[in-house]
Amino acid sequence: MSVYTASTTAPVNIATLKYWGKRDKTLNLPTNSSISVTLAQDDLRTLTSVATSKSFSEDQLWLNGKLESLESERTQHCLQDLRNLRAKLESGDSSLPPMSTWKLHIVSENNFPTAAGLASSAAGFAALVVAIAKLYQLPESASEISKIARKGSGSACRSVFGGYVAWEMGSEADGSDSKAVEVAPQSHWPEMKAAILVVSAAKKDTPSTSGMQHTVTTSDLFQQRIHNVVPQRFEEMKKSIQDRDFDLFAELTMRDSNSFHATCLDSYPPIFYMNDTSRQIVKLCHQINEFFNKTIVAYTFDAGPNAVLYYLQENETKLMAFIHQVFQRNSGWESKFSKQDLAAFDSYFAN
Ligand code: DP6
């Protein structure tokens, strides 16, 4: 009996303009548009392979080598949407094998350690949906497919693309215009780099899904954010990417991280994602930019204490010198600095 297979990878994306709040929980429709920068495919990604055959007796998922349940409503939503599109295709072409009625076997693996503290649901759902769309040979565009991934996890819609991605919130009640679109490919601004500073690998204490709804229902500041801050920032950030304007991109990214965490603090009772080390990193980034009299680094924090730093390749050594100086000299970076650099950093921190 024939077995049909397909594979794909989906990258981890980190929001530089945060999605925080749903206007529809079932369809995962957001209260604001968001933007992310996708980490390079070979760095952090999920690899998913899918197979289908008339002989399979149940849908099964192996996640990082372990058999996992496919029962969640979100996953079922995605599978149903994909099967419906396939059924539509089959109804117009009787030569196609009737895969829409067959069971699926799914094998998914992350190439990044859980200890990196990164949410894997975005890359995971994106890879799952794209792999099945490939298997079913669906003709829909990546933006159309992103709407299905969105139902798995909101941020997953952005991982359907690489590079710089916007998730347009849309206004339709059925979510038909709430989709990811490419702002620019990675090749548009290849000098952009990201570093993750792992502050804690512990599981977050307030998951994003419940945390954001808590903010929606209890924070006053949240209304200000979604109505008066994000719409303009969304346009400005897209432009900063199109213009490769790092100064502006960095400022908007840092401001948006701060604004999102402020709404978490303004929730009642408050939600704390950042800790003392996270705050030390924020301060350090501002000190670094001040020291060089130029914006060379931007920080952003998701629903946890770990920092993602964005910077341009040309400033990597300078930046790492500072980080290393503050967080111990044990990373092997000292060999990359000139004596002059090290002396300058030492005197800066001595003051
Ligand atoms: C802080 O996409 O994980 O990372 O839609 O409920 O699955 P669900 O939430 P999720 O939330 C991500 C929140 C964030 C910001 C972002 O990625 O935009």
UniProtKB/TrEMBL annotation:
GO molecular function: ATP binding; diphosphomevalonate decarboxylase activity
Entry-linked InterPro entries: GHMP_kinase_C_sf, Mev_decarb, Mev_diP_decarb, MVD-like_N, Mvd1_C, Ribosomal_Su5_D2-typ_SF, Ribsml_uS5_D2-typ_fold_subgr
Keyword vocabulary terms for this entry: ATP-binding, Lipid biosynthesis, Lipid metabolism, Lyase, Nucleotide-binding, Steroid biosynthesis, Steroid metabolism, Sterol biosynthesis, Sterol metabolism
GO cellular component: cytosol
Organism: Lachancea nothofagi CBS 11611
GO biological process: isopentenyl diphosphate biosynthetic process, mevalonate pathway; sterol biosynthetic process
Positions of the Diphosphomevalonate decarboxylase-like N-terminal domain: 10-180
Keyword field contains Lyase: yes
Pathway: Isoprenoid biosynthesis; isopentenyl diphosphate biosynthesis via mevalonate pathway; isopentenyl diphosphate from (R)-mevalonate: step 3/3
Enzyme class, UniProt record, top EC level: lyase
Enzyme Commission code(s) on record: 4.1.1.33
PANTHER family the record matches: DIPHOSPHOMEVALONATE DECARBOXYLASE
Protein known as: Diphosphomevalonate decarboxylase
Ranges in a coiled coil: none
Organism domain of life: Eukaryota
